[in-house]
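Note to self: keep these together.
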Amino acid sequence: MSEKALLNNKLRNRITQLEYKGLSGREDEIKKIYKEVKGKNPPNFEIYTKRMIRNLSLFM
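Structure:
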């Protein structure tokens, strides 16, 4: 597995700006930003809300 960081500061800052509006349903926008900044297609990813993570932790 690669030790290279997935997000650089520029990419992290742009995605953080989206967080204030809510990330749910913004996968296409995040993919577009990733491609603009990194110059390649992003890896597969899923967005989890706090509620979803909280519910998952109840089952562990």
